[in-house]
C-alpha cells in the first residue's frame, strides 16, 4: 500500500466520522432553530391578530381566512379557557393537491366582551424545504472538503515526500559494484536529512568493506600462485631424484596433484570474483550453434573414451552478445558437466532454439538437492579433482547476463535449460 | 644456449635454474627490472624468462627494450595473474609465449625448447633420439627412417617426452600440457593412458624400442637409461 493511500485512509475515516456526526448535528440544530423560529412566528402572529381584532371591528365578521395562513375564529358563549398550544396537523392543500404538514396555534381570547377560539395554521412546506436545502449544502461542503483533502494530500505528499522518493530512487539504482558512490540531495526536512546521512554513512562503510573484500580475494588469488609455483616446481625437482623410493615418489605426486588443484581452485574463485565485480565487460558476437560445435569438438576424445553419444538438434543459430571468456566458461562447464556425471555408454543431447540452450544427459540420480545444485562447493562426486565450482560459475554467468537457468529431472534424464534474454540476442540467422 | 631468468622470487628462480641447468642451459638470473634491462642490453641471450610483476616495474619493459634492439632472443612471460589482458598485451608487444603461475618445470622446458627450435630454423630442424626422429615443422615422425602416422595428441605427447628426456613427468603435467586446465583431471589420466598405448604400439611396429616407462602412481618417464 502506498504511503499516500495509507495516510489518506485514516484521514478519510476521520473525516467521514466527523462529517457524519457534523451533518446529523447540523440537521438537528437547524431543525430546532427553524422550529423555534416558526413557533416564535406563530406566537407573534397570535399577538398581532389579537391586537388587530381588537382594533378593527369588521374583522370579526370573517370567521375563516384562508389566504397564506389559515385563521379560524370561532365565537363561543363562555370562556373556554384554552391554554395556548401548538400542534402539527395534516391538511389538504387545494393548490398543491396533496396532504401537507401544517402547524397550528390554538388559543382562546376575549375580544370586545366576547369569547373566541382562534387557530392560526401555517404550512410547514417552506420550513421543510429549508432543512432540505441546508442538508444539501452540508453535503456539497463535505464533498468539496473530501476533494480538497485528496488533492492537498497528493500535492503536499509530492512536495513533502519528494526527498524521500529521491533517496529511494537513488538507492534503487545504486550498485555497489559500480565505482560511483551514493550522493543524496540535501533537504530542508530534518528527518530526511538524518535518513540520508545515515544511508550515506552506511553505504560508505559497506563500500569500504566490499572493496577490501574484493582486494583481498584478488590478492589472495594472485599471491597464492607464486608460492604454489615454488611448491610445484620443488616437487618436480624432487621427483627427478634417483635415490627416492616408490613410496616417496607417490607421495610427491600426490602433493603435486593437490598443488595443481589448489591453484585451479583459486583461479576459479578469482574468476567468480571477477564476474561479481563486472570485470568481464567486453562483448563479442557469438553464433551459438557454430560456437557449440567448436566446443563439442574439444570434447570429442573424451566422448569417445567414455563411450558417450552426443546428439545435437540446432533449430536455430542465434547471434548472442557475450564476453568471450564467460561464454567459454559457461558452455564448457555445462558440456563438461554433462560428460563428467554421465555413465559409460550414455548419451547427451544438445538443443538450440532462437532463445534457449538445452542440454540433456543420462547419469546417476542426483545426490545433492536441486536447490543446492548451483551452489559453490556442492559436489556430486567424491572426486578430489573436482573443485565444485563449475555449476556455481555457470550460475554466476547466467545471473550476470540476467539469463534464466533451470534444472529438471525427466525420466531419469538430467535436463538443464538456459534461456537467453532479448538484450543479448542480436538476431537469429538460419544457416541450416 | 644462454637463458636469462628475470624473477624476484628467489626460491622460484633457484628451482627454475636447477632444472634448466640440468637440461644443459647456461642460466643467469636477475631479480629486478633494472638489472634485467642492463643484462639484456649488455649480453646476448637465446631465451628470456620474464616475470611480469617485478618490484621495480613491469616485466613488459624488458620485452619492449629487446624489441627496440631488434634482438631475436626468445621471450617467455610468466605471470601470477590468470588475466587474458596480460597475455594478449605480452604477445602483442612481441613475447613468444605466456605461462601462468604455477607452471610445471617440464612445461617451461618444453616451451623454451619450442621457441629455440623456431628461432633456429637455419640449422637442421629435427630432433633425434636414437631411432626416433621428429620433424617439428611438418609435425612428422620417423622411426628407423620410416614415417609413422600419429594423431595430433600422440605427436604432442611424443614431442613433450622427447623435450623432457630422462625426467619423471607427473600425469597432471602431461594432462595440463595436452588439454590445458579445463579438462577434468581424473578423466584425462585414462586418456593419457590410451594415447600412450597407441603411441607405444606405433613405435614398436617399426621396430623401435619402448622408451616409455611407467612410474607407478606418479607418471611416466621417456628414457633409454
UniProtKB/TrEMBL annotation, chain A:
Record keywords: Kinase, Membrane, Phosphoprotein, Transferase, Transmembrane, Transmembrane helix
GO molecular function, one term: phosphorelay sensor kinase activity
Membrane-traversing stretches: 12-30, 134-156
Top-level enzyme category: transferase
InterPro entries: HATPase_C_sf, HATPase_dom, His_kinase_dom, HisK_dim/P_dom, HisK_dim/P_sf, TCS_sensor_his_kinase
Catalytic activity as recorded in UniProt: ATP + protein L-histidine = ADP + protein N-phospho-L-histidine
SMART domains: HATPase_c, HisKA
EC number(s) reported in the record: 2.7.13.3
Xref: CDD domains: HATPase, HisKA
Top-level taxonomic group: Bacteria
Keyword Methyltransferase: no
Keyword Kinase: yes
Residues in Histidine kinase domain copies: 219-425
GO cellular component, one term: plasma membrane
Gene3D superfamilies found in the cross-reference section: 1.10.287.130, Histidine kinase-like ATPase, C-terminal domain
Protein name: histidine kinase
Natural source organism: Tenacibaculum adriaticum
From TrEMBL, chain B:
PTM-bearing positions, type 4-aspartylphosphate: 51
GO-annotated biological processes: regulation of DNA-templated transcription
Keyword DNA-binding annotated: yes
Domain OmpR/PhoB-type: 124-224
Residue ranges flagged as DNA-binding region: 124-224
Annotated GO CC locations: cytosol; protein-DNA complex
Protein known as: DNA-binding response OmpR family regulator
